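In response to the reviewer comment on reproducibility (Comment 2.3), we provide here a single inverse folding case reported in full, input and output, so that an independent group could reproduce the run without further information from us. The structure tokens appear first.
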């Protein structure tokens, strides 16, 4: 299980997270646009969608139209800010049967996990999905990650976020039974945050 971070689970964490963290409406909607773009290209319309972890349900308004949306997060504080259907649970042990959802979205979690935890989480995201999994990660080929590797950018103290090579991520998906079919990034090579789409091909 991932180390619980009190910034997500502590008193008032959800209220704080739901507050205005983005510089502009355009940056606020960026993740949703990435996910919807990949869904357009690689997903099928409608069906059920799991948003895990959902946080405060930031992506819900974009993902919900025409789909049966379910939010999952381990933080009660985050879930308290979500509207609609929600479940408290662990990404590393999702409380659903195999092949349960048409689409599974995992936004802004993987870069907080070490390689073994990431592998396990991807295994679970793929296990409960019968269609496409869309996840964000920090791309090790981004300028941001490169500067950090070269020591040109000092990591903030206690900043444990990790960039991952695309090949390692692809291997995680492959071993879980999914094939990487596309990527999307709003500022390719600049922004570390990148999205990957993987279609489930069976176990
Ligand atoms: C950076 S937030 C992202 C939330 C949302 N996906 C978004 O983009 O706004 C990370 C979320 O992951 C949740 N989380 C972290 N580890 C988790 C785990 N192992 N299982 C379930 N939720 C987890 C936290 O509670 C937090 O809400």
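Designed residues, in position order:
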């Amino acid at each position: 299980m991932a180390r619980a971070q009190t910034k997500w689970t502590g008193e008032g964490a959800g209220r704080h997270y739901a507050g205005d963290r983005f510089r502009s409406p355009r940056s606020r909607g960026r993740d949703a646009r990435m996910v919807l773009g990949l869904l357009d290209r690689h997903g099928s319309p409608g069906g059920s969608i799991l948003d895990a972890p959902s946080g405060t349900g930031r992506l819900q308004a974009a993902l919900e139209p025409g789909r049966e949306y379910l939010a999952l997060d381990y933080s009660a504080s985050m879930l308290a800010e979500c509207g609609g259907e929600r479940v408290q649970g662990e990404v590393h042990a999702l409380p659903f049967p195999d092949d349960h959802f048409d689409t599974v979205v995992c936004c802004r979690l993987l870069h907080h996990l070490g390689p073994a935890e990431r592998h396990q989480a991807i295994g679970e995201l793929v296990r409960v999905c019968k269609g496409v999994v869309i996840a964000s990660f920090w791309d090790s080929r981004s300028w941001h990650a490169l500067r950090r590797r070269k020591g040109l950018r000092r990591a903030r103290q206690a900043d444990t976020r990790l960039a991952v090579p695309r090949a390692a991520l692809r291997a995680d998906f492959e071993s879980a039974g999914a094939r990487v079919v596309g990527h999307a990034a709003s500022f390719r090579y600049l922004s570390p945050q990148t999205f990957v789409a993987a279609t489930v091909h069976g176990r």
